[in-house]
Amino acid sequence: MTAKTQLTNHVWAARAAQAAPWLAGGSAVAILFSIAVAQILLGAAIGSLLVARARWRFPAIDWAVVALLGWTVVAMVAAGELRAGWPQLKKFFVFAEFAVVATACGTVRRARAVLMAMAAAGTLSALWSFVQFGRRMAEAAAAREDFYTYYTPRRTTGFMSHWMTFSGELVVVLGIVLAFALWANRARPGGGWWALPFANRWAALALAGVAAVALVLNQTRSIWLAAAVVVVYLVAAWQPRWLLALPVLAVLVYVASPGAVQERVRSIVEPHGETDSNQHRVVTRVAGIEMIKAHPLFGLGPEMPGKRFLEFVPKDLLPLPVGYYGHLHNVYLQLAAERGLPALAILLWLFGALVLGARKQADPVLRHAAVAAVIATAVGGLFEYNLGNSEVLHVFLAVAACGFAVVDRVDPASIA
């Protein structure tokens, strides 16, 4: 190799190394408004890291991810449904987000910048959802329909195409902003003027308020539960005595909420027939358990529970209530039914490895934002197949990766 060629390669590697953090961070932010843009940037970030010959980081969860992806292939082969499982194979690409962000944005300063940019994008999405809520109210009034009945199947989506995707992303954003708010005086966010809202506790709490109101108006009950657990965790980690104020705050939020929101809360125990999904969730849960009993080791194969759903529904639960039966609306049942109980054990291993790894993070904002993302995803998954959604999976992995950032010797950040 000539000296000129070596110099050219060195220049390209240096440029790729400079571009990689922007591409990786851009992918984490773009997923909050466009999956296509996010995946293009993710692919570009992978290419940049390869050109730069970067030393890849796979902290804490590398073997758990390898085991999950490997067992997915085993389950596909065992079921003999290779074509049906293709969508799950395509999701393997999304799992690269964790390693890409951990490698390219793996310093405290860069990780904070990624979280702030994600929070900003999520706040804009939340603000847009307020406009959508107002439009739904006007549409229901023009159609002279009961707002609750009209709105429940037409909820706010922010920049996303579905309310479950929007709320699944936004609850993670809520955890990010609250982490900045509660530890604002202990960890400088880094960055320029655009970082100021995250350096001031009251400004960050205002942003958290925007996300919280958007989640309330979104009316996705499973995410309300996830958000409640996230808030309890963050407050307990910050000042446990303030936990006593949370029930009072919950009552105030309920009283101040629109009538439709209050109806939605009551629907947990008093559903409005098939407008709410209570009975639908019962049917999917029962069918999922029957699938696992019949195929405990390898499952039915990825994507197969929806295709074979009617085979496992007890006769006394027919006819099926209104709802979507393409999956089981529970990430734990879904993985076990698709890929067997070993896949469920691996998922729990993955969640545990992320929490234990992030708890070692010295920076409080990154530590608590990462753990909050795991909690939001784990609790939300009790009532929805959230990790089957590429956008939610992408956000979850990006924020979790930030929990493993290290202090850069060249540009150290303040750590409490």
Descriptive notes:
With 416 residues, the protein is mostly helical. Helix content is 67%, strand content 0%. The chain has one domain (3-275, 325-402). It has helices at 3-30, 35-51, 62-79, 86-90, 92-104, 108-143, 147-151, 163-182, 196-199, 201-218, 221-238, 245-256, 259-266, 278-294, 304-307, 331-339, 341-358, 364-380, 390-402. Helix 18 (364-380) runs antiparallel to helix 19 (390-402).
In percent, how much strand structure appears in the residues? under 5%
Number of helices: 19
Largest sheet: none
The sequence of SSEs as H and E is HHHHHHHHHHHHHHHHHHH
Helical content band: 55-70%
Number of domains: 1
Give the overall shape.
globular
Report the uncertain regions. 410-416
The chain-level mean pLDDT equals 90
Oligomeric state: single chain
Q: Would you count the extended β strands for me?
A: 0
Structural class: mainly alpha
- Give the distance, in angstroms, between the N- and C-terminal Cα atoms: 49 Å
Rounded to an integer in angstroms, the radius of gyration calculated over CA atoms is: 22 Å
